[in-house]
Amino acid sequence: MLGYSARRAIVLAVAFVAVRVDLMADVPVVPVVPAIPVAPTTPTVSAVPTTPAPWVLGIARFGPEKSGDQPSALQDTLPRLIASNLKSLPIRRTPAETAVEIAALASLRSHFSAGADLASKLDARAVPFFDSSLDADARKDKIAQADNLVAAAVKKLNDADIVKESDTCSSTELATKFWEGYAKGQLIDTPSSGLGQAARAAKVDLLVTGTVAIQSGYAIVLMNGFDAALNREVFSWKSFCSVDDPSPLAKDLAARLERWVAGRDFARLDLNLGPAFAELNVNGKPYENDSPVIYVYRDESVRLEVSASGYSPRITTIDLTLGDRKSLDLELEPLVTGHATLSTDPQDAAISLDSVPIGKSPVSITLDGSRGIAAASAEGREPQTLVLPSSGESEMSLSLPISDGLGPNGRIKAAKDTFLQSLGWFVVSVPVTALTWGVYNGYSEAYLRSIPPLALTGNPSLYASSNASYVALWTAAAAAGTTATILIIRLVKYLAATR
Length: 499
Hints:
By secondary structure, this protein is α+β, with helices and mostly antiparallel strands. Among the domains are: 1-32 and 96-170, no CATH class; 267-331, Immunoglobulin-like; 338-399, no CATH class; 407-498. 38% of the residues lie in helices and 25% in strands. The protein has helices at 4-15, 74-85, 96-130, 136-159, 195-202, 247-262, 407-449, 460-498; strands at 55-59, 63-64, 92-94, 172-174, 176-178, 206-215, 218-227, 232-242, 267-274, 279-282, 285-286, 293-296, 300-307, 314-320, 325-331, 338-345, 350-353, 356-360, 363-367, 373-377, 384-387, 392-399. Strands 1, 2, 5, 6, 7 and 8 form a 6-stranded mixed beta sheet that branches. A 4-stranded antiparallel beta sheet has the order 11-10-13-14, with no helix packed on it. A 4-stranded antiparallel beta sheet has the order 18-17-20-21, with no helix packed on it. A hairpin with a 2-residue loop joins β17 and β18 (356-360). α1 runs parallel beside α3.
């Protein structure tokens, strides 16, 4: 790696590529612009503190040891096994000396970038001097604009901090996470180009690669780690395993990778929570990671609080010493708030609670504070359900009616069909009743007009027709009323069947 003096000389050489202006004879002479003043630099204060981005680990699909070797299933299986053994990751601790190297590389990149930017601005400043299409005023304006850009580039170069390898730097700690593709069951593709480019493309801070070679029934595995910040390989581990059983090696490589990420000794506690949706507090703070794995970096006692709806909470304390690898099962006991005795007619019906079979009636059900749904079923009977109380002591019963062979959906369909049939008859009866009403009114009015003055009776045939239409009207009205009554009854039955 270049020393500090050499790097500084390169930066200065890049920054002062300004002596290129030889005025041509046919270009009007422009007064030389005075030296560009650079405002004194002031420290930039961030108004809102930002949370550092998490440190990301990515594992790529392994490749063959030599180009042209036959592919092996282990090239895909082994990295997946390593990833599955890493349920969680400890906090990434970068040692002080590595932090200095990272800062020095970042400083060098920043200086080269600022120097290149300044050189491009100086090149752009020289262009107006050679542009014969510009008059004196336009050339002066162009140069003034370029001077502003050059001043900004000079300030950027001056503001860049210089970190030397001899400087001191404290170790850093960052939260960690896995490459996002693991949640979808993916691996990073085997890098075909440079590792740095592959790490940047996958957006990972540590890219783990490897090769597999098969010899005499054994696999020779070489696993490497490429640090994107250092732009170099940081570890290389060679191991062996059986082709038929790579699990022990995957477990060992996962443990070594875990230790490398931690950068120090630690203790780990794997928790198995029951139920799985239980909430966990560690030392009074909510645990937010997906996998309940706890890391500690000194000897200490860890207080664990586990709670879940419908279960009695549990509090325990466990002592951890550096180097410990422990596991703990935390099963919560269901919360008891009362009992409900459920009987059925007929007896010995199968009972289930929230779709889980619990026995045959009569049965005693333990209440846990939630309102569960009990269901009873028996051969030849219609199943029935009820909602249990949340607490207290109670006795409940269900009567299972004899099955009609239709089932709930069949009964709904039958009730719907009969309702629609009644609706159709009612719709037909309405215009018939209206028609008979019109006929009756016509005959009645014609008969009244047929009565001569001072006479009591009129045309006998119109009188007979009026009476016949009167009977037809009441018959149609009675039919319409009957169909309306049946329609209402069947609508009530249809609504009851859908409940």
